[in-house]
Specification:
Shape: globular
Organism: Bifidobacterium catulorum
Protein name: FHA domain-containing protein
InterPro entries: FHA_dom (IPR000253), SMAD_FHA_dom_sf (IPR008984)
Keywords: Phosphoprotein
Structural class: alpha+beta
Strand order of the largest sheet: 2-1-11-10-7-8
Helix content: 10-25%
Length: 162
């Protein structure tokens, strides 16, 4: 009978050790990704398709006009480390509400225009027919022109370039 109890005790102890080992192996800190260096964020090479159209992004308040003719990272001081075929453009930001790497414009294989927020503090929004909708980080949104794009608190009209 003692042998039976020892086997049962050994089995329970082995199961407990296994569960502890498994917990130790699979447990990770939620803060592992918190220290990610956003200064080195780059556009994926899938965003480097040449568009079939050229677009104009214009901020009447600052007088800045940006021509979008390839995938572009927009920001207050955007990264220069980009895949071949993409570019970055510094947006005038008198109110400092635009993030360093704020948003990206890209084109799909059919030349359609897409907008993606890059985890900005003050957000990226599309305004179409008076309705404002937020562009959520990591979820590119297809853009129909003409429309208004709000980056931080700066408003840009977006239309096809002449």
């Amino acid at each position: 009978m003692d042998l039976g109890r020892n086997v049962a005790a050994d089995t329970a102890m082995t199961a407990a050790q296994s569960a502890t080992t498994t917990d130790t192996v699979t447990t990770t800190s939620a803060s592992d990704d918190d220290d990610e260096d956003w200064d080195s964020t780059v556009l994926s090479s899938s965003f480097t398709k040449e568009p079939e159209h050229r677009y104009e992004l214009h901020n009447e308040a600052t007088g800045q006009t940006v021509i979008l003719e390839k995938s572009t990272l927009l920001g207050r001081k955007p990264s220069r480390n980009l895949p071949e075929g993409a570019t970055s453009i510094k947006l005038a930001d008198p109110t400092r509400t635009i993030s360093r790497n704020h948003a990206a414009v890209s084109f799909d294989k059919d030349g359609n225009l897409w907008l993606e927020d890059y985890g900005s503090l003050n957000g990226t929004f599309l305004i179409v027919d008076g309705e404002e909708s937020q562009v959520v980080k990591g979820t590119p949104v297809q853009v129909s022109v003409p429309c208004t794009v709000r980056i931080g608190d700066q408003f840009f009209s977006l239309d096809k370039a002449q």
